[in-house]
Amino acid sequence: MATWLCVSLSACASIDVPSVPEQPALNLESTSFANVPVADTPDSMNDVPNWWTLFDDPVLVDLVQSALSENRDLAVAQANITAADALLKRASLDRSYSTSSGTGLTLDNPTRSSDVDLNLSGTLGASWEIDAFGRIDEQIRAQTFNRDALVQARRDVAVLVASQTAQAYVDLRSAQQRLGVAQENAALQAEGLSLLNELVDAGRSNDLDLNRSRALYLTTRASLPAFRAAVASATARLNALTGAYASGDEKKGRSIASEQGAIPQHVGAMAIGSPATLVRRRPDIRAAEARVGERLALGEVERARLFPTLSFNADIGAFFGSFGDVTEVNSLGFGIGPALSWEGPDLRRVRADIDVTDAQTEAAFAAYEQTVFTALSEVETALALYAGEVERRDDLAGATDAARNALKLARLRFDEGLDDFLDVLDAQRTLLDAQDDLVQNDTLITTYAISAYRALGGMWTDAELDALGQPTETVMRPDVLPVESLTP
């Protein structure tokens, strides 16, 4: 055995081990977002509260907190982490010994006599693999990175749930505002239509103006059901996101929908940071980093197969003379010593598996880079759209004021007989469009702010993540590469 062990180890010394793929570097420290100067924004997100509190709307805060506590997608993500914990524990147990046992029952009747003996045997064994080439360590490392990726995936789900809840609430308030604008204008148009009917009856106006007024009124009134449906749709989305259906708390959503409220607006400057900060905090990027670490570790597991597996075994066996009397031991044997197994000397299959793993590692590298690029694009797009809508806000507000004044003047001139009712109709139509455009602008400003915070990755501190019941750290051995070390 000793001779075979020496020969095997000497053969291993000449094995050509393929090199591990290198991760490409991404230098983002010197870059900044196009629409926000880095110097004007905090570099550390520890000073930033949960982003939905920056809209200063208690109802929004309550809805998001409910969603983060009750949403079922988060429950699924947490269950995946629990499964990963079990897999990590299972991989860690490979460091310790394993046991096995067995029993056997034989029929002994060599002379074909009428006497039949039933003989019972039993074995008990233990084995411990000596991790000489790091296979077990790398398996544990891979499972650790897998768990970390799932932790980040849960955080990504939390970011998505928070943004979807905020957006559903914004859509609810937007639909309410647009419904209110349409109802207000429909009331004014109905008043004008009633007046015009009286004037036509008195011979002071004509059927052309009357039909134009009726068409505008009916068109405005026809928009009301769509806005009411939008309110109901947003309410249903909130019920689903906050788990209200499961808790039987749908009345809460309907109560919110029955109360008029303004579209929440961001208070103060947006906290953005730099691209390098984004890479460190966005959960899908950190999950992609963890997947790179997992693939690298699995590659080392495959490379360990190039070398023998050395284990230390101990076995004991007993043979009982009679099935009915297990206290009578006819024979007892035991064995103890090392064991060596190897997939060589033909290692072509192992090398093929290494090539497969290396290709998967390259794919993980590429996926990581693309995740970073996509994140940068999403942030810059959201910021550009946000800045554009903010820039439009003053002009749209001014246009609404001007349209309101124009309607007053048109009505005054009509009452004095200076103009016909067509000018009043045009002024009413212009005011309705201007007010609706202003509401939609407020909606888009908040929508793009939410999109920006979604793209930025949540902006939670560790303490706030713990308060949401979300794991923030991966339990890792000191000698296991942490995911932060993979950040370029």
TrEMBL record:
GO terms for molecular function: efflux transmembrane transporter activity. Keywords: Lipoprotein, Membrane, Palmitate, Transmembrane, Transmembrane beta strand. This is Multidrug efflux outer membrane protein OprN. One of its GO terms (cellular component) is plasma membrane. It comes from Algimonas arctica. It holds the Pfam family OEP. The gene is oprN. It is a lipid-anchor. It is found in: Cell membrane. Its main location: membrane. InterPro entries: MdtP/NodT-like, OMP_efflux. Belongs to the outer membrane factor (OMF) (TC 1.B.17) family. The lineage of its organism: Bacteria, Pseudomonadati, Pseudomonadota, Alphaproteobacteria, Maricaulales. It comes from the Bacteria.
